[in-house]
Amino acid sequence: MPTDSPSAPAQPARVLSGIQPTGRFHWGNYFGAIRQYIELQAAGDAYYFIADLHALTTVREPDRLRSFVHDAAVDLLALGLDPARATLFVQSDVPEVTELTWLLMTVCPMGLLERCHAYKDKKTRGLPADAGLFAYPVLMSADILAYDATLVPVGEDQVQHIEVCRDLAGSFNHLYGDVFTLPAPRLVAGGGRVPGTDGQKMSKSYHNTIEVFEELPAQKKKIMRITTDSRPVEEPKDPDDDHLFALYSLMADEADVQRMAELYRRGGFGYGEVKKALVEAADAFFADARARRAELEADPERIAAVLTDGAARAREQAGRVLMRARQACGLTPAGRQS
Length: 338
Ligand code: ADP
Ligand code: TRP
Known about the structure:
Blueprint: E1 13-19, H1 27-39, E2 44-50, H2 52-55, H3 62-78, E3 86-90, H4 96-105, H5 110-114, H6 117-124, H7 131-145, E4 151-154, H8 159-176, E5 184-187, H9 216-224, H10 243-251, H11 254-266, H12 271-285, H13 287-297, H14 300-329
Parallel strand pairs: 1-2, 2-3, 4-5
Helix pairs in contact: 3-13, 4-7, 4-14, 7-8, 9-12, 10-12
């Protein structure tokens, strides 16, 4: 059956996303990104990678980078990433991507990168920016195009980079023929903006994070210190306008969330009670993942095997796309296989 026939089955999505190993994962990373990546394993062929080349623009201590990469792999597996269904690998294990970055760089207008926010923000604040940060969206484009990805789940802050990717793929295809598959962003739904301990967006840069696998006593301390307003206990409150409630509702059972919302509307409760309930809800929500994490941490060979296998699968795919690109632009004679 021809593939353009109206009754042809839709191609399954090729899902791809990357996450930077710039620290331990926090609740914002989990509810805003990782949870959706894991759900999308079922949507088709999925590729997830630990973006260590991107992290190099901020993490300058080799030991820290190594341990963040290791922890990211263990955390993702503990949180439900299944290597039998998704390919998990480390970005720098696929050198084809850096070569592809160069090919894309040659069709990338300076102005396009000057408008990208990571670089623009630094420049506006008068901070020094290196060429790595400037070219970051080109590396990210190569990450996506190397795997013929069709669907890229990302947070809102990354949508601009997917647009850059589509632009570069379009320019390359226009010059050299149909080489790259154009991807679409998939805004991660559900997590929204997870608040931090001070009510602002949870982010490493604001020092207001609660880490997913933080030791429980330390985590409890942080939760008990979440900022709250000074309204009296008896006053009824709007649950939808409270960051403590927002965190609680991410982790508690639906019935408990309803009960807590009632309590807010009725008044007559202290924020301390809500914090205690949040400690318990978080503990229960991540209990299985914590147990899996402990098992994985005790088996470093298993982690190494998953990443080695992931890199081999990723390289095979990226190698095919790179060869297509090299032949199209005249670097490799047409028809050569490797
Ligand atoms: P940080 O701001 O702590 O440095 P990153 O920028 O590394 O976090 O975020 C990695 C991913 O997690 C991104 O896709 C981002 O959209 C998501 N994310 C981070 N913080 C939050 C948050 N507070 N709420 C929702 N999503 C978040
Ligand atoms: N830049 C992304 C972030 O900071 C991480 C990333 C790198 C990525 N390459 C990617 C995400 C490719 C999606 C696709 O969150």
